[in-house]
Amino acid sequence: MRPVTMEEIEGLRGLNSVKVKEAHEEGKKVVGMYCMFSPSEIAIAAGAIPVTLCGTAQAPIEDAEKELPRNLCPLIKSSYGFAITDKCPYFFFSDVLLAETTCDGKKKMYELMGKIKPMHIMNLPQTSEGEDSLESWHKEMVKFKAYLEETFGVEITEEKLRDAIKLMNRERDAMKRLHKLNAHKPAPLSGMDMMLAQWLKGFNVDKEYGISLIEKLIEELEERIEKGIFAFDESAPRILLTGCPIGSGSEKVLRALEEAGASVVALENCTGYKPLDVMVDEDPDKDPLLALAEKYLKTPCSCMTPNNGRFDLIKRLAEEYDVDGVVDLTWVACHTYAIESFSLKNFVQDELGLPFIQIETDYSDSDTGQVKTRVEAFLETIEKKSATV
Amino acid sequence: MYYIGIDIGSTASKVSVFNDQNLVLNFSMPTGWSSVEVSKIVYEKLEKMNIDKDNSRIIATGYGRVSVPYADKTITEITCHGKGAHYLLGEDCTVIDIGGQDTKIITVENDRVTNFTMNDKCAAGTGRFLELMANSLAIGIPELAELALKGKEISITSMCTVFAESEVISLIGKGTPREDIARGVINSITGRVYTLLYKHGIKGKIYLTGGLCEIKPFVELLSERLGKEVISSPLGRYAGSIGAALMGF
Ligand code: SF4
Ligand code: SF4
Q1: Where does residue A24 rank: exposed (0-12), middle (13-18), buried (19+ CB within 10 A)?
Q2: Residue A360 contacts B where some CB pair is shorter than 8 Å
Q3: Does the complex come out with an ipTM higher than 0.90?
Q4: Ligand 2 within 6 A of A76 CB?
Q5: Confidence at residue A389, expressed as pLDDT on a 0 to 100 scale
Q6: Using one digit for the tens of pLDDT, what is the confidence trace for A231-242?
Q7: Quick one: average pLDDT of B20-26?
Q8: How many CB atoms lie within 10 A of CB B163?
Q9: Which sequence spans correspond to the domains of chain B?
Q10: Which CATH number describes the domain made up of B2-79+240-246?
Q11: Would you say the CB of residue A77 lies under 6 angstroms from ligand 2?
């Protein structure tokens, strides 16, 4: 049976869309963001509400394709489709948009999207290594702060920034503890529910309420662990899912894995554990904008080169969660993740000694059968392995 | 005790029967429009041989595996092809299976599938592609491969089946010899297999399964393209059903 708190967490879906409307009517500002490189702390310190606008649904893609090429990553098409069709309340109520120069598809799409709503673009360095990168990313933080101050006519004091950092660190910490519960064998929470809980946090208008719900879920799961109630039994292969971001509506590979009997215990992607790994430094002697720059620059995303951090993180998670296999999801036309998949495969198979599969697909249902076959065949190779030991 | 493997593929359905340890029979039939229908016909055939649910263990595989209501278990064609290839070749190997809908590369180590790669979401480089191209030349696949042996190297550049078809038609229009077109068609398949195989990695001998393994000239051209010997055997097209039956042991 599903943890009861999950229902409350799912309730956030409806609640948040009402709350964002109310907040807008009260004159609160909303900052729409698209990426895990977006420093939501600065928006919060400006008294605004940060929301994640990443498109995770197939529905608006057809409309997006009227303006964008078809062979583009579905996430980009979905995000743009939501923007031009006004089907997403969060986009609709966003006062400004924050974007970063991440992958090529996204940054060119932003040029078009910037015509619909005011948009600030942060110039993300292409590498996370070296002082130069940090320095330039730090400057981008300064610029974004100035942009919000000017646009919203507010002052972002150091104190407000520090408070926002503390708040977001608390959210991260709660999410991280939730994620880590699945290191338990067997896992107390299904990967589907974990994804949902992590995904919904991006829309939380009331951060404190969101955090309290996660704390409640953690408590419930800890009780369940004691009582021996788990999402899967001991025999379910434990999977680490990495690759492109997923969310409600684009969870098909995760769903296929769990429907085929796997327990997806670790979500390494940026909609899962990736942004939770590193906290923002709360050192009172450090410039909070520098602390933010340091944290966000460490996001091990494939749009960075090199991206060694991702391999380190996967290794750590694979060990900590004692996984039986690694699944790398790459959205069609996502070049950075697709290319990186080749190195990842060698790393996982040769250095971690674990089965690995890359699954390339999009948001549509057209290849459900093929995805199912791949996933099942992959799990069959794992099951046989454990049977021999 | 009988062990039955039923492989419902997108074009053909294959059945293998083991009587205890011995492979006693293989047969195949077109899948037609309904995998449910074909699985019924298979059962009737088995019953005529006095094989039924009570004296056998039945494993279904292939894309229509879920349409075999009387199966004891379903297992994906990837696992079954690996198992079947190992049985036929008698050792670990890297399996190439060119099916109707997809092409797979499967690594078999210690009689188990340890790794596989499938082509993505598209008919390029599959059996269906060959079939369509042969149709546009108004010949069958065996003749196509035969012709290709005599052809000059030309390349069909379109990766997409639909575009490749119009490319072939325009080559016919230009009066390009059929041998050369046939060679181009085969090259585009073997080229796809080449990239898939080398991206995947080769361990042990290379073994071809699926319907194409019966076509000698194709095997020859594939070996040439891969720069490695490709082994096949007459029962290669039954690798999936044989493997399925073995999985029931
Ligand atoms: S995958 Fe990278 S670029 Fe895309 S949303 Fe996540 S962090 Fe941003
Ligand atoms: S999934 Fe890949 S292509 Fe799509 S937005 Fe993210 S990095 Fe860009």
Answers
A1: middle
A2: yes
A3: no
A4: yes
A5: 34
A6: 999 999 999 999
A7: 96
A8: 13
A9: 2-79+240-246
A10: 3.30.420.40
A11: no
